[in-house]
Structure formats: C-alpha cells, structure tokens
Backbone:
C-alpha cells in the first residue's frame, strides 16, 4: 500500500507541475494538491486498521519530500506574479529559494517524524 499511495502522491506532484507549465494558474496547483491528498487518504484508510506505525513512519518519511514542493512553489509563484520582491537579485532569489525552502522544510519535518512522532516504534 505504501508504493501505491506514494505513486499517487508523486502523480499529484507531476500533474501539478505539468499543468502549471501549460496553463500557468493556481488551479493547476490545487489539482495537484488534491491528488496528493487523495494519495495520503488512501494510505491512511488502509494503514490505520492494521495499526503498524512502522508503515506510517516509512510512508511519511518518504512522502514528506513530495508533499512540501507544491505549497512552496505556489508561494514563490505568487511572489513572482505580484512582484513582491523587486531588484536584480529577485529572479535568482525566486528561482533557487523555493527549492531550498522546500528541501529545508522537508528535512525538518522528516527529522521530527523520525525522532518524536514515532519514537516508540523500532
């Protein structure tokens, strides 16, 4: 079930990216996030009855890297659209900053999941 749910979450990320490149509007990112939410719901429906925290730990440790990209991408595109940051460094900053923030946020959540949420499960 972990593989199927992860594939659904990855499909949501990929569809959001492809739709964004084609249509350039926020609804494309919303569609991708909804597909990712469906992937998480599918996993939780089948993982909760078994009560194996090992599976939940593995799922969230893998998929947190995929779930953080769309919100960070949306914030960066919103900032670029309304030009909230001006200047010569804005293009470079807004090109690399979302990726860096997404990886940093994913790493922080990954560490929190591994250490504190599932600390009793070995």
Residues:
């Amino acid at each position: 079930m972990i593989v199927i749910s992860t594939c659904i979450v990855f499909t949501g990320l990929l569809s959001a990216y492809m739709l964004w490149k084609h249509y350039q509007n926020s609804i494309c990112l919303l569609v991708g996030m909804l597909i990712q939410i469906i992937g998480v719901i599918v996993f939780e429906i089948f993982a909760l009855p078994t009560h194996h925290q090992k599976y939940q730990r593995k799922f969230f440790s893998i998929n947190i890297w995929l779930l953080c990209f769309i919100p960070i991408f949306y914030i960066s595109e919103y900032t670029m659209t309304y030009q909230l940051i001006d200047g010569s460094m804005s293009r470079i900053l807004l090109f690399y900053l979302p990726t860096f923030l997404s990886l940093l946020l994913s790493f922080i959540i990954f560490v929190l999941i591994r250490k504190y949420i599932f600390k009793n499960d070995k």
Summary: The chain has a mean pLDDT of 78. Residues 90-117 form the longest helix (28 residues). The chain is about 80% helix and 0% strand.
